[in-house]
# Entry
Amino acid sequence: MPTFHKIRNVLALAVFLLAGLPLAAQPVPQLIDYQGRILDGNGQAVHGTVKISFSIYAEPTGGTSLWYETHEQVYVSHGVFHVLLGSVNPLPGLLFQSPDRYVSIQVNNDGEMLPRSRIASVPYALQAGNAPGDTDWMISGNTIYRMNGNVGIGTPAPGEMLSVADTIESTLGGFKFPDGTVQSTAVSGANSGTITSVSADSGLVGGGTTGNVSLKVKFGDSGTADAVAHSDHLHDGVDIATGTVAIGRLPVGTTSGTVASGSHDHSTGTPISESGLTTDVAWRLVTEGDAHTHTAGHGGPIPTAGLADKAVTSPKLRVVDTRYSSSGTITGWGQAPVTMSISGADYNKVWIPHVIPRTVGLRISWTYDVTYTSATAMTYRISINNLSGTAGEYLVRFVNLSD
# Structure
């Protein structure tokens, strides 16, 4: 194994005095140009590729390495080599904060070459330490400050002594105010403050800038009420004092001055007088078949005297009965009959089945027979025939002709 001896090295250092440069100085490449010449144990110049490791210490001997890197493939030509220190492992920013720094070299697996070489400044690097800088900024120990002008962070045009164009973060301590107090948490509801004015927006009236002020809802119509109702409020039990309520807004049945619930009936109470019924109400009773009971509370049938055309008559009130009905689909002639059993108090009344086509173009006919099935029951069997040949839906209803 040949033994290598370092004969000469040239170290060009342009970063030694970086700590003394003004803040406005341009960035300096964090690399050191290092050249040297290597001879073997016989004093012959080395020629070829070698591995060279570099270390920087604060002491000429011993101590702990402050920085270290290895160049695996260094080409040596007639003993001369050239590398850039910091190209493998970046040089720490504060490595040259002290003037005492020494370079240690190891070639291949040989031991450290001694003595270590002290790092010195090139002439222009010395001058950089005395170069004039930005006199607005002052350095005093660990404090950097300036006495005039504005400072911008994230903005080239600060409008105040310190302008920040992004989020300011305080991870410890908080923010100190001119009165000496320190705010370390966000303002909460428990903190007090001064309200200088209250303004009324659209839909409100009131407000002001002095004294006790209030806001009220701005009403767009006449009246004296000073409360606002919910959009889904009801008027149950509240009289309508004046004005007209459209018939479509009223439920079935009303009493004087009030609107009754839509599910009420007149099984007890004051009968409906014939003068209180209009033509429209009479027509609805006949055609719509609402299950609205008018029994003993009305004192018997509603009289028809004084009612206009489409009047409510006794037969018309009994025409439609929805208690007994059936529906289905008929596809052809002679379909299985529809049966319906009527029992209880209704069994001995006269019921006539009526079949209604529910599909456009459907034409039907029907016959029926009645079987006395028990002392209190009758069974009706309706045979329906499809005369159109087209399948369709039908509805069976029973007409009560009893008194």
